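Field log, afternoon session.

UNIT: design team B
ACTIVITY: writing a sequence onto a fixed backbone
BACKBONE:
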């Protein structure tokens, strides 16, 4: 099995794969792995299971960002009316 046919997260093969090229998930992958992708490096390929996990991780990250903004505003003495819940189905 060629390296390009292996999931970059769980290292499994022979399963449906997704290419993360030029997507928000590619940026999330780079953040999670603390890596810098070289221009000549091939595409990041992940299995469908890890692809779904990355999507959920992205939702968790967005929820944390939004919640942090609310807390920071409240700590600064502001008030905020929360029109919608920032709870996501993770």
């Amino acid at each position: 099995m060629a390296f390009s046919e292996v999931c970059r997260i769980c290292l499994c093969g022979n399963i449906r794969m997704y290419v993360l090229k030029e997507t928000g998930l590619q940026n999330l992958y780079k953040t999670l792995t603390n890596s810098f992708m070289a221009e000549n490096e091939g595409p990041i390929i992940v299995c469908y299971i890890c692809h779904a996990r990355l999507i959920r991780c992205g939702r968790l990250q967005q929820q944390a960002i939004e919640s942090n903004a609310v807390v920071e505003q409240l700590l600064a003495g502001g008030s905020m009316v929360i029109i919608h819940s920032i709870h996501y189905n993770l």
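LOG NOTE: The two ends are 33 Å apart (CA to CA).
NEXT ACTIVITY: expression trials, pending approval
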